Give the backbone structure.
Amino acid sequence: MNPMNSNKQHKKIGLSGNGDCRVAFCPDCGTLEISLGTSTIRTNSESLHILSSVLNHAKVRLAQMQNASLTNDGAQQIRVGRVH
Ligand SMILES: [Zn+2]
């Protein structure tokens, strides 16, 4: 029983972190771990790029919505695109 040969130790490297949100990378298997509070998402670096752009877009959209509701007293319907 020698775990050193059969089970390679996966060393995760923290890439970024802020508050409850952390991103770690395992170079041994290419797994990317995104932790948000108590949730952890395991994914890969490709998904990180997608997630990053989706989050950025969501951020912009949220800002637009918040600006719109501020300037129009919330009276204007905000177009969020087709639902389903
Ligand atoms: Zn790993």
Observations:
- The chain is about 35% helix and 25% strand.
- Residues 10, 26, 28-29, 31 surround zinc ion (CB under 6 Å).
- The longest strand covers residues 13-18.
